[in-house]
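Weekly sync, protein design subgroup
Attendees: M.S., D.O., the rotation student, P.L. (late)

Item 1: inverse folding check
M.S. brought a backbone from last month's batch and wanted to see whether the design step gives back something sensible before we order anything. D.O. pointed out we never logged the input encoding, so this time it goes straight into the notes. Structure tokens as presented (457 positions):
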């Protein structure tokens, strides 16, 4: 064998100062164990002479070959003889056997004698030592206790740990947390999609009066829509409006149409950076402005909302349109947390009395049956939301200034929380939404259609 551990072409040769190592063999199971020389055993007794030990070896060899062995000289009885000593030296195995044992050695499946022989060989044979190292590393991967993917809760735990050691000097207000969370989730989706998917077709759906309508755009167009409508909040906080200065519309649909029809190339991946910077600036400004800014009015043209409700409404839009984009590019997208979803449902429930009054003025809802003074309990519908973010709400039916009351409930509707939000977004029709209905059928119909009327482009 040559110095690098390979068998020499001239056959087996003796290496000075080393054991004799034959050429390689396929597997240890194919070895003819009878051809492997066995190490000599020491004679009984620890004080035997060297000559006596030398004479024992040929006698054992003759017995192995079936030859007659002369009777040994009389000595002490077996009871008086000390227990024979076993040799601790590793067995001398050929290179082909030791190489075949490397896999079992890496798995710790060798016997004690085989382990000693392999480890003794690794100190002399560099190629086998390299192979043993690679096998041991591979075994470490096979025996891993957990998934190689990152824990999905790792980011949250790291942030919580950092904030626990050093709380934020200016924390994000609780009322801005849903918008912060939903913009971050949508941004993560946008980061993962490819350049071509920014032009994937997306169909936006909503309700107008009594019918469902839709509009076709692209992924980049949806982000441009969010950018344009979020500009209403930017203007209310004194920030730059993405539509520029001068006379710009306040109605969300008109703002979107203005942005889409502006001169220049159609929106591409570049719109993500503008939308992302705007959302970060909104959160920073709301955080630094203090408590009073939560009640600042944000005008949507036909109506206005306080900033805290406007940010919640924008969080709802981010989630809904994030789902639209995820469907278009075949991307998994989850619902908001239960706490955030509950707040979104609460906002929709608080907007329903005004929506009912608007539909009544337009002749799309039944006339009021029992008007009461502002702040007094009025005829109500019990809205029972089940599952994720659920709860109970009582919707005033006849006057937007009345207070919903369980004592004056004339109807009840049971809905899943996510299904209610899909109805608010205009993604399902009112006749398909309610899982359970009881009481005044006219009041139930009016509330369901008023819920769908909250949707828009």
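Designed sequence read out in the meeting:
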């Amino acid at each position: 064998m040559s110095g690098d551990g390979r068998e020499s072409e001239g056959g087996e040769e003796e290496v000075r100062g080393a054991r004799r190592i034959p050429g390689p063999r396929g597997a240890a199971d194919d070895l003819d164990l009878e051809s492997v020389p066995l190490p000599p055993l020491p004679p009984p007794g620890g004080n035997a002479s060297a000559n006596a030990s030398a004479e024992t070896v040929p006698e054992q060899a003759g017995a192995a070959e079936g030859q007659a062995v002369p009777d040994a000289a009389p000595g002490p009885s077996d009871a008086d003889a000390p227990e024979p000593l076993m040799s601790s030296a590793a067995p001398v195995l050929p290179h082909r056997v030791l190489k075949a044992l490397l896999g079992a050695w890496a798995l710790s499946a060798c016997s004690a004698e085989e382990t000693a022989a392999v480890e003794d060989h690794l100190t002399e044979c560099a190629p086998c030592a390299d192979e043993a190292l690679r096998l041991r590393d591979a075994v470490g991967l096979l025996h891993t206790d957990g998934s190689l993917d990152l824990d999905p809760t790792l980011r949250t735990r790291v942030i919580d740990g950092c904030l626990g050691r050093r709380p934020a000097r200016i924390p994000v207000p609780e009322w801005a947390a849903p918008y912060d969370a939903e913009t971050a989730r949508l941004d993560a989706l946008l980061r993962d999609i490819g350049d071509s998917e920014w032009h994937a077709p997306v169909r936006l759906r909503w309700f107008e009066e009594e019918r469902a309508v839709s509009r076709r755009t692209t992924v980049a167009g949806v982000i441009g829509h969010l950018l344009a409508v979020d500009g209403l909040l930017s203007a209310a906080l004194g920030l730059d409006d993405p539509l520029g200065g001068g006379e710009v519309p306040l109605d969300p649909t008109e703002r979107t149409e203005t942005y889409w029809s502006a001169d220049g190339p159609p929106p591409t991946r570049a719109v993500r950076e503008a939308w992302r910077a705007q959302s970060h600036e909104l959160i920073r400004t709301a955080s630094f402005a203090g408590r009073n800014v939560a009640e600042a009015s944000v005008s949507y043209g036909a109506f206005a909302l306080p900033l805290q409700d406007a940010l919640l409404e924008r969080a709802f839009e981010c989630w809904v349109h994030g789902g639209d984009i995820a469907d278009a590019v075949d991307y998994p997208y989850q619902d908001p947390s239960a706490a955030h979803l509950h707040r979104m449902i609460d906002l929709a429930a608080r907007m329903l009395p005004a929506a009912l009054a608007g539909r009544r003025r337009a002749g799309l809802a039944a006339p009021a049956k029992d008007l009461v003074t502002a702040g007094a309990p009025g005829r109500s519908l019990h809205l029972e939301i089940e599952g994720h973010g659920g709860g109970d709400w009582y919707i005033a039916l006849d006057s937007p200034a009345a207070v919903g009351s369980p004592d004056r409930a004339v109807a009840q509707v049971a809905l899943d929380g996510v299904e209610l939000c899909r109805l608010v977004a205009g993604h399902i029709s009112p006749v398909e939404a309610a899982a359970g209905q009881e009481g005044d059928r006219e009041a139930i119909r009016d509330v369901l259609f008023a819920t769908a009327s909250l949707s828009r482009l």
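Discussion: Residues 1-30, 46-88 have pLDDT under 50 and may be disordered. The first strand starts at residue 201 and ends at 208.
Action: P.L. to compare against the previous round before Friday.
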